[in-house]
């Protein structure tokens, strides 16, 4: 970008050491105010940010009422962060994407947090992004996939509030970080469910203990399956084992649906039942992507907690 009408020596006027003519380099952070004045940019203030959010309401309605999400852990709303990441996915520069809505250093921290999760460098899809999402540029997909069903969206507001409550408590924060780490290690971009082998029973119990503080117990579905071919056991042993496991889960999680459906996976499969519009649970409903949505957002936002002040 050219700053027409400015002499070389004027670059350092009012911004000491902004330009190094020996190395032909410019420190954009020191030139920020000069650039903002040149571009007639709106200075970032708390009032400006609130006005920016109010001018762009969340396009979600429930029962005809407009719903606006609250910011979680940072001074920026999830909608603003999503918009930033979506523009970066489209190939825009960080300066173009953050505009007047973000402090540049904060935008850098958000970008770094989201990009760090894209572990398969150079590929548009990765562990948290399903292959059904289409990339609009060569940039990796880094924004959490948005929810499409209004019932999922409505429930997500409660879940974010529950995550926020956990984060405000020292013990809850430790639980949430462990939950998110486990989610990331076990999650898959191609599946909405999470799988655990039988040897990880204690991990599953702990995972559900924490997860149900975020997503209410009644929405969880646990499938327990043991394949004789995979485990080398007979039908009677399978029946006894499944019965014991099922009893253990139903005792510990009495309001959670526990199934013994035969699948190709031998172990525990955890999924979320998609809620209905009347907040009722239908066991026959397909699985919701809510757990993956919350997990992806949680990983981004918790990593920003100590980098962006309120």
Question: How does this model look, in words?
Answer:
The protein is an alpha+beta fold and 310 residues long. It folds into three domains: 8-38, no CATH class; 43-150 and 292-310, no CATH class; 151-291, no CATH class. It has eleven helices and nine strands. It has helices at residues 32-38, 46-55, 78-89, 94-98, 104-116, 150-168, 170-186, 201-211, 228-231, 235-252, 290-304, and strands at 19-20, 25-26, 60-62, 65-67, 194-196, 220-225, 257-259, 267-273, 287-288. Strands 5, 6, 7, 8 and 9 form a five-stranded mixed sheet that branches. The chain has a two-stranded antiparallel ribbon with strand order 1-2. The protein has a two-stranded antiparallel ribbon with strand order 3-4. Strand 1 (19-20) and strand 2 form a beta hairpin. The longest helix is centred in the middle third of the chain and has 19 residues, at 150-168. The chain is elongated, with a radius of gyration of 24 Å. The two termini are 32 Å apart.
Structural class: alpha+beta
The mean pLDDT is 79
Tally of structural domains: 3
In the predicted model, the low-confidence regions spanning at least 5 consecutive residues are 1-5, 39-71
H-E string: EEHHEEHHHHHEHEHHEEEH
**Rg measurement, Å:** 24 Å
Globally, the shape reads elongated
SS summary, helix count: 11
Distance between the termini: 32 Å
Beta fraction: 5-15%
Estimated helix fraction: 40-55%
Taking the sheet with the most strands, its summary is: 5 strands, mixed
Q: What's the count of strands?
A: 9
């Amino acid at each position: 970008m050219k700053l027409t009408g400015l002499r070389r020596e004027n670059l350092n006027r009012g911004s000491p050491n902004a330009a190094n003519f020996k190395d032909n380099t410019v420190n954009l952070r020191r030139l920020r105010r000069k650039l903002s004045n040149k571009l007639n940019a709106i200075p970032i203030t708390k009032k400006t940010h609130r006005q920016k959010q109010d001018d762009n309401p969340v396009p979600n309605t429930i029962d005809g009422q407009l719903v606006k999400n609250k910011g979680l852990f940072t001074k920026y709303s999830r909608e603003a962060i999503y918009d930033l990441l979506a523009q970066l996915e489209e190939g825009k520069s960080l300066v173009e994407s953050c505009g007047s809505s973000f402090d540049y250093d904060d935008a850098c921290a958000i970008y770094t947090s989201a990009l760090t999760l894209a572990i398969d460098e150079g590929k548009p899809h990765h562990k948290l992004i399903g292959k059904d999402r289409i990339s609009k540029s060569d940039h990796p997909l880094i924004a959490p996939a948005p929810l499409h069903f209004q019932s999922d969206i409505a429930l997500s507001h409660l879940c974010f509030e529950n995550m926020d409550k956990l984060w405000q408590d020292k013990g809850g924060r430790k639980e949430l970080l462990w939950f998110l780490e486990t989610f990331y290690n076990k999650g898959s971009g191609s599946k909405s469910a999470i799988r655990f082998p039988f040897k990880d029973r204690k991990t599953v119990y702990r995972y559900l203990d924490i997860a149900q503080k975020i997503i209410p117990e009644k929405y969880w579905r646990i499938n327990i399956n043991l394949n004789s071919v995979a485990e080398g056991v007979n039908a009677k042993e399978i029946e006894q084992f499944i019965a014991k496991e099922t009893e253990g889960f139903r005792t510990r999680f009495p309001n959670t649906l526990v199934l013994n459906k035969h699948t190709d996976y031998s172990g525990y499969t955890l999924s979320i039942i998609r809620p209905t519009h009347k907040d009722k649970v239908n066991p026959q409903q397909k699985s919701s992507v809510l757990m993956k949505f919350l997990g992806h957002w949680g990983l981004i936002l918790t990593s920003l907690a100590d980098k962006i002040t309120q």
